Amino acid sequence: MEIKNTMKLINNLIYDIGLHKSEDTSYYLKKGFKVIAFEADPELVLECKNKFYQEIKNKKLIIIEGAIVDKERLLDKTIKFYKNLGTNSLEIEVPTVNISKCYKKYGIPHYLKVDIEGADLICLEALLEFKDKPNYISIESEKVN
């Protein structure tokens, strides 16, 4: 595979893919990092936008709303997302997100944290088209026998 994109690594940038209730993002911001956070659940996005109003205003935090999808689903504008409600789930439509475009727009992060329930590899595979890579990566790992 030929590497075409030469985005530079940005040392003060962290991607928090799977913002959820913002515990990790809060920690990163307190440490002085700029954060690009991703969340598919619209209610959690709204809570975090309210919580981090000042950080968003000061461009220390950007929240990307939607679900990161693989290349086959990028033409779709929305995707079904199953919101966990404890013992039940609620099906909602959320926007799709192209992680490669985000890497191009915001840069390659110093640290990449990915926790998006089974879609973590999409974020890693997208890095293959870039010369620079994050210094640190954290993902969920699931082994099925």
Walkthrough of the structure:
This protein has 145 residues and is α/β, with parallel strands linked by helices. It has one domain: Vaccinia Virus protein VP39 (Rossmann fold). It contains five helices and eight strands. The strands form two sheets. A five-stranded parallel beta sheet has the order 3-2-1-7-8, with helices on both faces. It has a three-stranded mixed beta sheet with strand order 4-6-5. Helix 1 (23-30) links the parallel strand 1 (9-17) and strand 2 (34-39). The mean pLDDT is 91.
Q: Name the CATH homologous superfamily.
A: Vaccinia Virus protein VP39
What is the domain total for the residues? 1
Oligomer: single chain
**Biggest sheet overview:** 5 strands, parallel
Measured as a percent range, the helix fraction is: 25-40%
Q: How is the largest sheet built, in terms of strand order?
A: 3-2-1-7-8
Quick one: CATH class? Answer: Alpha Beta
Strand proportion: 35-45%
Second-tier CATH architecture: 3-Layer(aba) Sandwich
Shape: globular
Number of strands: 8
The assigned structural class equals: alpha/beta
Distance between the termini: 30 Å
